[in-house]
Amino acid sequence: MALKHVLLLPGLACDKEVWRHQSRRLSESAIVQIADYGSSDSIKKMAESVLRIAPARFALAGHSMGGRIAFEIFRLVPERVTGLALLDTAYRPFAGGDHGARERAERLRLVDVARRQGMRAMAREWVRNMVHAARLSDKVLIDSIVEMFARKTPEIFAGQINALLNRPDATPILATIACPTLVLCGRDDSWSTYATHKDIAARIPHSKLVAIENAGHMAPMERPKQVTAALVDWYSAVVREYVAR
Questions:
Q1: pTM for the model
Q2: Using one digit for the tens of pLDDT, what is the confidence trace for 134-180?
Q3: Do 129 and 190 contact (CB within 8 A), yes or no?
Q4: Where are the alpha helices (DSSP H) in 169-223?
Q5: Are the C-beta atoms of 131 and 145 separated by less than 8 Å?
Q6: Which one of 52, 72, 171, 191 has the largest count of C-beta atoms within 10 Å of its C-beta?
Q7: Domain boundaries, the chain
């Protein structure tokens, strides 16, 4: 198969560590590339940076902010995307009113913590609401998340926060997605909720919805085996559709 390429898109302040288990397994049957957005400070710029390293055709898996980047890539080059996997993400633009004000204030507060106290201090605060409560005592997991964040600078973090606060609305493209699509989240993700993912799946024709039990927003790291199994099944569907054509 000439088109066996998968691009994995990390989320906010994340890197290849978030995809460690999944990339190893997918590499058995595909050419896997993990994106790095550099200093990009908008979703569009991040999408464009991914496309600079992308082959002619590819499947996309995006986690959290990476899911929003996947939507933007599909908006830009839908004919090149063979499959979409959307993990712990969302599609709506920045909200106005009190809800938007609270989100902006909290995100900018974390940027301030990162600048004043460092990325590790910010990450240790951020992670409290991003993994399942039962995993907060898992030192190996928490340390791996904190050290991943620490590899980013406060400036990169601030740029990515700017991108999220100015995120585009992906609503118009959802109904146009026709490639094999997986919509997955931790059942207990309190940031990008299961209800949000049910909504996404309902808007994308023939998509598959998967909830990972006993997991929060960092499902690929919290429950790597279960997430990997879902991604392997998804990529098998991508391959089958290509062969059928």
A1: 0.96
A2: 999 999 999 999 999 999 999 999 999 999 999 999 999 999 999 99
A3: yes
A4: 171-174, 194-203, 219-222
A5: yes
A6: 72
A7: 5-94+169-244, 97-162
Task: Output the six-digit token pair for 224.
Answer: 């790597």
Q: Which CATH code of 3.40.50.1820, 2.60.40.2660, 3.40.50.620, 3.20.20.70 fits the domain covering 5-94+169-244?
A: 3.40.50.1820
| Per-residue pLDDT reduced to its tens digit, 97-140 | 899 999 999 999 999 999 999 999 999 999 999 999 999 999 99
Q: Which run of H or of E encompasses 163? A: helix 154-165
Show the CA angle centred on residue 161, arms to residues 157 and 165, nearest 5°. Answer: 175
**CB contact set of 212 (below 8 Å; sequence gap of 6+):** 184, 185, 186, 187, 219, 222, 223, 226, 227, 230
Q: What pLDDT score does 1 carry?
A: 47
For residues 148 and 187, give the distance between their C-alpha atoms in angstroms, rounded to a whole number: 23
Which residue carries 């709506």 as its tokens? 92
Residue 8 pairs in a beta bridge with 34, 61
Cβ neighbours around 183 below 10 Å, total:
25
Q: 36 near 43, Cβ under 8 Å? A: no
Using an 8 Å Cβ cutoff, are 201 and 207 in contact? yes
Sheet containing 81-87: give its strands across.
31-34, 5-9, 58-63, 81-87, 181-186, 208-212
3-state helix, strand, coil in the chain (%, to 5): 55, 15, 30
51 vs 33: CA distance, rounded Å? 11
Residue among 20, 24, 67 nearest 222 (CA): 20
Give the tokens for residue 178.
């026709």
